[in-house]
Design a protein that fits this description.
- By secondary structure, this protein is an alpha+beta fold.
- It has a single domain, classed as Electron Transport, Fmn-binding Protein, Chain A (Pnp Oxidase, Chain A, Roll), CATH 2.30.110.10.
- It contains three helices and five strands.
- It has a five-stranded antiparallel sheet with strand order 1-2-5-4-3.
- Helix 2 crosses helix 3.
- The protein is globular.
Length: 117
């Protein structure tokens, strides 16, 4: 939430670890500070290809600053979004002190496919 109490929305890179969703963020961002105050999160992932689909996940976040775990997941995320050939580069760039590894354990999942059918 913002200082005014309004919800915050931000794009993120995500990966799955079993049923958990993982992402990274810097500790000093609004998102990082908000997660330390309140671990409740909501994520929306959409498929922008017709006939369109989406998943909304409500969950609880836990935060890790373990350097090995952070670097590993930053590398996974970099590979997923920037390609395998750049995974290590993004792992080194984003798996650094000050970054947080956030693990979201879902508590409620809503999904719809074929939205435009």
């Amino acid at each position: 939430m913002s200082a005014s109490g309004a919800p915050r929305v931000a794009p993120i890179w995500i990966a799955l670890d079993g049923d958990d969703i993982v992402f990274t963020t810097h500790a000093e961002t609004a998102k990082g500070k908000a997660l330390r105050r309140d671990p409740r999160v909501a994520l929306c992932v959409d498929d922008e290809r017709p006939p369109f689909a989406y998943v909304i996940v409500h969950g609880t976040a836990t935060i890790s600053e373990d350097p090995d775990e952070l670097r590993r997941w930053a590398t996974v995320l970099g590979g997923r979004y920037m390609g395998a050939e750049r995974a290590e580069e993004y792992g080194r760039r984003n798996g650094v002190p000050g970054e947080l590894l956030v693990r979201v354990t879902p508590t409620k999942v809503l999904a719809e496919q074929g939205v435009a059918d």
